[in-house]
Amino acid sequence: MAVSAFYPLYIITGVLVWLPGEAFLSYIGHYTMAMLGVPLVIGHIFMATINEETKVGLSGMFTGWVDRGWAKHHYRRWYRENFEAAQESSEGLMPLLSRPARLRCASCKAVHAVGSWAQLLKRTYRVEPLFCAACKAEIRIVGCRADSRGADAIGEHLRRGGVSEPFQWDPKPAP
Fold first, then answer.
1. Does residue 130 surpass a pLDDT of 60?
2. Cα(91)–Cα(81) distance, rounded to whole angstroms?
3. Quick one: which of 30, 124, 137, 162 could link to 13 by a disulfide (CB 3.0–4.6 Å)?
4. Degrees, nearest 5: CA angle 120-80-75
5. Closest CA to 41 of 8, 1, 10, 75
6. E strand or H helix at 39, and its extent?
């Protein structure tokens, strides 16, 4: 940030170096700022390429992904807002995911039992489709959309009891 903040001074002193009569003082100022900025640049190169504790940040600059512990240490507020708040809100649902899952096929209306909602969700995210034993149609739990309506519907089904009545997802978009 310090190097960036001094860019206007670099430009001004660089232009003044070309002017007759002002060159010496401008050159001294330009050279002094460069000598103060070089250790900052070298320090950042060292931290990004050699230092084991901060090397993770370099790959994060290119990929956008860093270790969760590193993100927690360097960006505490962002980590709290994105991970700790989400973890607190999902803790109430975790015991419900161990309940047995019963699903209704949208094609033939047959009911299928799956070990638990946790197993079903793991299977869904590993992309192992579930097929109806009666009509061989694929049973879709949640569509691949950015909205959270499917997850909200599963959560509401589990909060209402979710064991006696099978879950059937209606993927029609909201009006």
1. yes
2. 16
3. 30
4. 120
5. 1
6. helix 23-49
